[in-house]
Structures are given as structure tokens and as C-alpha cells.
Amino acid sequence: MDLDYTPEEQQFRAEVRDFIHSHLPKEISAKVHGGKRLAKEDFVRWQKILHHKGWGAPSWPRQFGGPGWNAVQQHIFDEECSDAGAPMQLPFGLKMVAPVIMTFGNKGQQDYFLPRIMDATDWWCQGYSEPGSGSDLASLKTRAERQGDHYVVNGQKTWNTLGQHADWIFCLVRTSTEGRQQEGISFLLIDMKTPGITVRPIIMLDGEHEINEVWFEDVKVPVENLIGQENKGWTYAKFLLGHERTGIAGVGRSKRELKKLKEIAHRQTAGGHSLMSDQRFRDRVAQVELELMALEITNLRVISSEHEKKAPGPEASILKIKGSEIQQMLTELQMQALGHYGLPYLHESLDATWEPDPMIGDYYPDYAGPLTGHYFNYRKTTIYGGSNEIQKNIICQMILGL
Amino acid sequence: MNFNYTEEQLALQDTLRRFIAKDYGFEHRRALAKAEPGFSREAWAQYADFGLLALPFSEDQGGLAGTPIDTMLVMEMVGRGLLLEPYLQTVVVAGSLIRDYGTATQQAELIPAVAGGELMMCLAHYEPEGRYDLHHVGTTAVRNANGWKISGHKCVVIGAPSADKFIVSARTSDGTRDEHGISLFVVDRGAPGLTLRSYPTQDGGRAAEVHLDHVQVGTDDLVGELNKGYVMVERAIDFGIAGLCAEAVGVMSALIEVTLEYLKTRKQFGAPLAKFQALQHRMADMAIATEQSRSMAILAAVGAKTDDAETRNRDITAAKAYIGQQARLVGQQAIQLHGGMGVTDELNVSHYFKRLTMICATFGDTDHHLGRFSATLMAA
User: Fold this and answer.
1) What is the ipTM of this complex?
2) Is A332 in the active site?
């Protein structure tokens, strides 16, 4: 038992840190640290920088152009990126569809799609949930009918994240209504420019446009965009959900946000002193830190035990539940720290270029703008990616054998 | 002991329930919140017709001599309907302050105008550095031949953008964090040197930064006794807290209803969500939290009329601390039980949740009141 990083790992961390320090554009990290709205270009720009270095796809094996890092190296990379304020590498291409293409796709699909994911040529989004199929995903109804060398797709997907920017969507579609519902699902890759696709924004409770409904009306998809075999899509979908949970603990990000919470608590005043000297508030910060310390080690235990390139087991559900709860606690305390200044809804303060009127800006803290919205927005973390209720079912069934 | 509402109270509740159903639907409310002034003048006129704006004032003052229980009932409906009008600020807080401490002239001038729906008011008290401490007043009022000149900054003054008159706290003696030496003044919205920077709040309401730069007020504008403003502010805010507690209960009751309805209709795995025991127990916890909160809101309403400040503070602060905790549970779980739909702007559940969150952060958050309550244990 040894909790220290090896000298090689420490050397690796230093190398990653140096690179990020000299290559992450300051205007992007300022947005991330300030909780400002990121543009599509910010994500793409950072992805291209990483790709240029050969680090575009930290979790990919060497044969597909990845750096071939083990789980601990990936974790170190994630921590350093988060701490430096790098934009999150969006998972839809890199961590979701790519492993499916690598494992179940054919050579042609691998050669075409994977490099384009790595160098950010294509922005991917996910077509899983439907209005009637959320936790019960296998009941999905979007139809794909084979007509010659095409599928014709009709239906509706929802909770599609950032699909307004997307070039491609990977979809679970129903190709058969015979037998068990899991056995009639196929996995299709669909070009978002295909006629018949409509993307409609869903405005979230914080007023932001982050998710969409995607409608398909007689959308023609070439059969070569089918992954693997027809009606085997559920197997691939489950495989993908396993990969989605890799990194779901969000330890790096939460460490950064904890640091920010402490900075805010030092800057806010209460009782004539800093809010950090208020024991009741400080205890709440301490409590989150305890949770995060435990999660960091649990996360390392899970990823160290992972066999190379294999999706994590049901333990990932523990990471998802605790990770999401910690993220929520952090956003809640950041908001709470603001006191009165948690109330204003200054939507324009999410813009990096916002310069407040001095009569507001002289009093309203520069970090305040996004925090209450983040608290609202982060309620999603216990709902998405398999709600925490579903994760508890998985723990009951797969770990406890209930 | 009697926990029943009177016939009149039930009738008032019924009137408001019908008003909300008919004239204050969710989509209408959403449209109001998006446009200026952020509420409905027509609704305000209706409230005047219903007698709501005259409710807490004595008959001598042209009011209806309503009790704090009447106010509780109204505020619960304000919560249920997510009503945007500045009732709490104008009637419950500023109104009670003038009623209890205003000079005869101020009462004669202001109260009938409030009761008639012609005048909106608000208390501008909190300052950026003071967080929730009521005794923190750095704004100064300097005596001169005509009265006082007030300078300072008041933060996140809810209801300020529509207020015709403000009650502003300012220091006339002692240091920034002393209870003694705070005085209250009526300041006209149009007074030279008074500047507002208005913005919406997270729950669709309106607030402003209120900046005072050598604002001249007259000798007649002093409310109550010089240097004794702390007690007045505390009392007015206690009424405000009691009102917020009732409002929170209204929001929580509405959340229970909409969530229950959602669980009964939404089907996954071939059954309504309401059939899953894990979710049933969650609903049970929310129902318990709401009933316990209702009890504390009653305690706050009854406690608010107590003149003994120590007893009153203890009840009020207990209610705010407790309801804050329960509101957090009910709000967060209502969202969670709605799944993805809960985090959209489209359903009312997120709007109720946001209002609850803002209630928790108004007039002292849960931790502030928990600390205040636990400090009373030391004295005992």
C-alpha cells in the first residue's frame, strides 16, 4: 500500500503542467476560472492544441493515435487540466462514440471518424434519451427502417447536450419491435446536415441554452453508418455508458472548485471578519473537503484496479453518485457564500467581456455572476448519465447482489 | 389552542386561490417576470380591492386590523402563485414599520396611500460589507440646518425599482457595527442624489443597488426616535421573515402537488414512477418537511406580534433556520424527482425551486439564523 505517486508519475505531472502553463490561452483559462460562458471556438481551440502535442485523446490506445497513458496518468492529466482552468474535453466524441467505434466499428469507420474526433474537425452529440425514455432507455421509439442502402429515421431525441454545434450525432434507434425491447435497437451515426433533422433549444432553469430536442423526419442514413450489427445496439450502448462513467467522479474539477470556494470565503465578509472565520460556514467547507478527500482515493482505487482499456465496473456508480453530490455541494456553498449577491440575475455577467456599471461593479463581487446559475444548473448532475437513483439500483444489483 | 382559520380567513384564502387560478397562471406569470416592471399593476389594483394592501393596518389608519395570521395566509398564497408584486416589501415590511413607528403625519400620509394601492415602498437597509447583520450600517446621515444629508450604499434592495418611497437606515451616531446610533428616514424616490441600478433577481423578481450621495431629507422625514432605528428595523424584518416563512410553505405545498402529479403520470419501466418505493419514501420525507415547516410558520406568525424582542427573535429565527433547511430538501428533491424536466425553464417546478432558494437567502440565510438561534442557548 503506497499512496505516493512514483517519481515517473511526478515527472509526468511536471511535464503536463509545464505544457499546459505555456500553451493554454489565458483568455480561455480566465473564462473557466471565472465561470464564464465558453464558446464553441474555445473548446475547439484547446482540443487542437492538445492534438498538436499528441495529447488530443488521453484515454485512447496508441493504435488509434492516443498517447497510450495508463489510468493513473490520465487522472494526473485531468487534475492538471482542471487546476489550470482548461475547458473540459467534451466527452461525446472522445469518450463516448470513439470507444464504440474502436471496439465495434469497422476499419472504414475507424479510419474516417477517429482522426476527425481527435483533431476537432467533427463535433459530436448524443442521441439517446427520448421524451418517453429516460431512465428506461431501452423503451426508446425512434424508428429506423431499412430501405435499400439507407435507413429512414423518424422520431425524437431529447436532453441532447450542445447539439446546436454538432456535425454528427450517434443515435440509438429501433430497428425491430420483435422480442425483448433491448434486442431491437441499433446504433447509428448520423450527419447533422442530413435533411429532415431539426434541433430545437431547451432552455434550462439558469436561462442558458445547453441542451436540445432533436427531431428526425424521414432522415436518410446510409447503411454504412450502422455500427456493428443491426439490433445489437443495446450491447454497444451499455458499453458506452460504462465509458461515460470513466472520469465521472470529476475529482480534478471539484478540487479546483473547492479552491475557488475557499478563495471566495476569504474574500466575503461576515460579522466584520472574513466568511472563512465564520465557523459554521467553514465547517460546511470542511465537510465537502472530507467527502472529496475520500472520493479522490476511492477514484484512484477504482482506476488502479481497472484492467487496461476496460470500462470500469459497477464501482463507477459510487464515483458518479459521490462525484455529483460533491459538485452540487460546492456550487451550493459558492452561492451561499455570496449572501445578498446570490440574488441578482445579471445574465450578461457570464460574458467574458462584461464590464459592469461601477455603481454595481464596485460592490458586486467579480466572481459572483455565474454562481447561483451554476447551483441551479448543477442539479442536473444527479439526474444525467443515469440518475443517482439508477446508480443506486446498479449498486444494489451488481455489487450487493440484491 | 385553536389551529383553525376563521370563516373570513377561509373566504380570503378562497378569493386568492381563485384569483391565482384565473388571473395568475404560470405562463402569464412568466411573461410578467420577463418584461418591465416585472409584475402586474392590474394585480396590485386587485389586491387593493381584495383589501390585502390594507390588511395589517389599524382601523384608525384606514386599515382592516388584520392579524399576523391573516398575513401568513396571504403570504402562503403569494408562494403558491409565485406572485411577483412587492407585497412583502411594501405592506409587510415597510408598511408595518410606518404603522408601528412612523410619526402621525407619516402614518396619515403613507398608510392610506399604501392601502389604496397608490404607493409602493421598501426598506433599504442591508449593506455589502454587513452580510446579514442588522446592526451593520455604514451609511451616514449628517445633521444640517434643514435636516440630514444621507450618503451610502444599500445592496440588493428587493422591490426598489418600483418603490415610490424608501425607508433608509443611516448612522447618526456610534460606529458602523453598533446597534445604537442607527436612524431611519423616509426618502423620496426622486430625491436628488438617490440613484438606482436595477436588475432582475434569479427568481424573476426585481431589485436594485441603491446609492445615496448627499441626499437631503427634512426633519419630518425621521422615522421614530433618533438613534433607535435598530429596534425598528429588527421588528419590521421579523414581520418580513414571518411572511417569508409562510411564502416558503406555500411554495413547498405547491411543489408537493406538482411533483406528486408528475410521479403519477410519468411512466418508466412499465409503471408510473409513483409505484417505486424509493420515490414514495422521498415524497413522504418532503411531505413531513412541509408539515413541520407549516408549524414553524405558524409559530413565526404568532411570534411576530410579541412585543418582547427576545422571545420574538427566538421564534422568528428558529422558524427561518428550520424552514430554510426543509425548503432546501423539498426544492432539491422536487427537481430530482422530475428528472430532466425539473431542470428546464419550461415547467413551473424550477421556478418554485428558484423562489425557494432566494427565500432562503433573504433576511438572513439558514446558517445566519441557525447561528443566531444557537447563540440564544448560551444566554439560557
Assistant:
1) 0.97
2) no
